[in-house]
Amino acid sequence: MTLTNYMNRKELLGFLILAAVIFIVLPLALDTFRLNLFGKYLTYAFVAIGLALCWGAGGILSLGQGIFFGLGGYCMAMFLKLEASTPENTAIQSTPGIPDFMDWNQLTALPIWWQPFHSLAFTMLAVVMVPVVFAFIIGFAMFTRRVGGVYFAIITQAFAAILTILIIGQQGYTGGVNGITDLRTLLGWDIRTDEAKNILYFVNGALLFVVLLIAQFVRKSKLGRLLIAMRDQEDRVRFSGYNVANFKIFIFCLGAAFAGVGGAMFTLQVGFMSPTLVGIVPSIEMVIFCAVGGRLSILGAVYGALLVNLAKTTFSEGFPELWLLGLGGLFIAVVMAFPNGLAGLWSEKVEPLLNRLISKTQSAEAANPNKAPAE
Amino acid sequence: MFADYSMAELGAIFAMQGFAGLILFSVFVLMALGLAIIFGQMGVINMAHGEFMILGAYVTYIVSNIFAAYLPSLFGIYFFIAMFLAFIASGALGLFIEWAMIRHLYKRPLDTLLATWGLSLILQQIYRSVFGAREVGVSIPDWMMGSLPLTDLIEIPINGIFVMVLAVSISLAVYIMMFRSTWGRQVRAINQNRVMAGAVGINTEWTDRLTFGIGCGVAGVAGSAFTMIGSTGPTAGQLYIVDTFLVVVFGGAASLLGTIASAFSISQAQSIMEFFLSGSMAKVITLLVVVGILMIRPQGLFALKLRK
Amino acid sequence: MPERFILSVEDLTVSFDGFKAVDHLSFYVEPNECRVIIGPNGAGKTTVLDLICGRTKATGGTVKFKGMNLLDMREDQIVHAGVGRKFQTPSVYEDLSVFENLELSYPKGHGVFGAIFFNQDQVVQDRIQEIAETIFLADQLDEKAAYLSHGQKQWLEIGMLLIQDPELLMLDEPVAGMSVAERKKTAELLNRIIQDRSVIVIEHDMGFVADIATRVTVLHRGEMLSEGSMDHVQNDPKVVEVYLGH
After folding, report:
1. What is the reported pLDDT for B305?
2. How far is residue B88's CA from residue B213's CA, in Å, rounded to a whole number?
């Protein structure tokens, strides 16, 4: 694949503009508190990019992306919690050295499956691999049995419900409904300071671009075209000699990996992880981020996540009652009136306008004899 | 875990939990019937189904208050009027939604799912603004209070029996509508071959609207019945939507009998396990088993093998 | 011992809830033979193709292709074994260009990672160009398939099969729904591509059938009614009875 195949000039421009927004405009325009808030919004963009591949291109709608976001986030939170729960910090507990919520729930030793999360290397691997393994199990079971469409959506939603109930129910192991809170340091580096928050914002932005570039690579590869082909004519793809299930499993796992990274960055920037980010409601909201951006567009997914969350924060601060009405209306509007979202508006309305303007200035230049190039 | 209980106690536990399961079963059946009509026959996913149910519950709440204030002498029978009005209210809203939204999305099932989710958010907020965020309960008529002692150990609450009777009668009514009425024949015809059904003179557009409306109306009745055993809040509908979808899918989407059988097995499994495990683990295991079986048999328990 | 037949269908049966769409059907296809399957509507013709290519699971019987038992294989494995299938309604990828449609059908890079790192080298491009010329679409390579005419879509799908270079090609009503001019061009195209490979065709157009068929199999209610040369089946009283009797 040559470079121009990978990204044409228009797409490159889009990437550069987004990079300018994330790395220059937002940091200059916002104070640390707001910047951290935008960093949080951008963690949802990881999920939305995955959905743009799975749902937009591949037609696989998962209503359980919160599962993977949560798993990634919990892995990171477990590491940070263990680091925060030193015997000195937890000396007042009846069993010092274990996370506080375990102590409250009469646990006297750290469960075995928490042990590996003492290691940052293992944790970073787990942030990606735990969601991927989960996605693989779900995807393998569903796609090899040819379950798709609304059935897949409902079953992933059921999984989101199951995981939430499980996390809330097993509070001795998971922190229950409050989640894992009171996270302090990463290898001794205090993540609660303004400086740390600024740095984490940039790390998050950089990771987002890594994910965007991977997504772009996949979309522009033959696999990207196969996804679109599968969405429209699954049987034909099969009879062109492809094992459709494998491709679906792959893209579902890739989306899960993205979501896991987003979840981990959420934990780092916001300082906690809780089941409210795993369940049915956040999972379906992540779909709307992707839909608002334009379900096919990976850059749109980022803008969608930013704008919807910005609106959510703004409205729920001022008029909490309006927000649900607005969000509900957004779901309906984006499906019925703007199925291609912001990216669609851009390419159908704004771009032709820009092109007209450009061609006008060009023809004006051409008409001007003084500026015409010498023969 | 059984060692601590005597045989008689164990028997009583199973009987009581079994009966608790029957009440849960009735609720599942009531909710799932409407969904089975809409999803099974039309293939439409209505994520706002729970909110249609809650509308029925709120209608019942209003009617009970009106009767308590103005017609206390007739309070004993208010419920039947409330149920009828709940059917009308939810059904009418359903007709409107089909006209305004659903009919534009028949070819895009995943989009229908998202749009109806949006609808559910809007309805929840409206309920919250109108009725407040707190849960409301209706006063149950005297004759429905108390319980029937079967043996020394086993007691059965009367409102539970009432809800069960309701579930059975509404199932029968839906069965008769589906398989004995002209509308039912038309719905089934459209389900099998839409173009042909249109060609032989069935007004498919109107039948779709009516089907959606009736499904929503049945949800309203379910909500109405639900007030007899629990209280109603703006987000109560969302709690049940996943369970209900699983019930319908597990049963085999197009089969009414399957829906009832699957509601029975899911509710019994859950409530019997609930006694020995915590409520949340019982639910997790039940859902996992259901999802697991669906992975092995995606078409559900009762589905026809069809020629593609 | 070399097999005499490239495809042996024996005792093939499928039932949908008791309804036997194909009932103990046996037939054999020789290498380089062009077999045409005809029969009234509902005879089970398309179902037979579905069974061979793995789209529908058989209830009983065997389908052997070059010694492999196709009934145990997944669709994509059957394709890799050398069986190509064209559907009745043109099924092409409408959102992709003609070039991309052909590219996806090129028999390389069929694994997940093979597809991600698939390289569109000169060999691939030349082959796509060559096929596009064969199917009269060389000038439409960059056009979205959605904008093609019905006939052009049929050709594109045939091209997608050709690029796979299957040993056994199965075509379901390849000239249905075409204009007279398109039909003529298609017949010419088919006559060219059925050389050097075995072909099973479902077709109603008897003139066309007489033109291409080595042998004809007549199906009726999922069972074999008659088999042989075109002349033979046309004069078979059982066939006449089925076609004219009701």
Report:
1. 45
2. 9
Read off the pLDDT of residues C37-55 as tens digits, 9 standing for 90 and up: 988 888 888 999 999 998 8
Query: Nearest 5°: phi and psi at B47?
Result: -70, -15
ipTM for the predicted complex comes to: 0.88
CA distance C127 to B84: 69
Q: Is B151 on the interface with A (CB under 8 A)?
A: no
- What is the DSSP-derived secondary structure letter of residue C174? T
- The pLDDT tens digits of the residues spanning B40-80 come to 788 888 999 999 999 999 999 999 999 888 888 888 788 88
What is the distance in angstroms between the Cα of B308 and the nearest Cα belonging to chain C?
Answer: 8
B18 falls in which pLDDT band (50, 70, 90)? confident
Q: Answer whether B81's CB lies under 8 Å from B63's CB.
A: yes
Task: Single out the residue of B42, B30, B39 nearest to residue B188, CA to CA.
Answer: B42
Co-location of A242 and A360 in the same domain: no
Residue type, B65: N
Domain that holds residue A357: 339-367
Q: For residue B308, which residues of chain C lie inside 8 Å, CB to CB?
A: 50, 55-56
Position A258 in a domain: yes
- Sign, CA torsion A332/A338/A339/A342: negative
What's the number of domains chain A is made of? 2
Does A292 share its domain with A363? Answer: no
* Token pair of A84 as six digits: 């925060």
Q: Nearest CA to CA, how far is B1 from chain A (Å)?
A: 20
Cβ-based contacts of C142 with chain A (< 8 Å): none
Q: What is the pTM of this model?
A: 0.90
Cβ A128 vs Cβ A261: under 8 Å: yes
How many whole angstroms separate alpha carbon B174 and alpha carbon B177?
A: 5
Q: Which domains does chain C have, with CATH numbers?
A: 7-244 (3.40.50.300)
Write out A173-189 in H/E/C secondary structure: HHCHHHCECCCCEECCE
Nearest to B79 by CA among B158, B135, B13: B158
Q: In A, which residues are within 8 Å of B238 by CB distance?
A: 280-281
Classify residue A373: in a domain, yes or no: no
- How many whole angstroms separate alpha carbon C65 and alpha carbon C83? 9
Alpha carbon separation from A170 to A58, A108, A179, B288 (Å, rounded): 35, 15, 11, 16
Are both A239 and A283 inside the same structural domain?
A: yes
Q: How far is CA A316 from the centre of its chain?
A: 22
Q: Look at residue B307 and give its three-state secondary structure.
A: coil
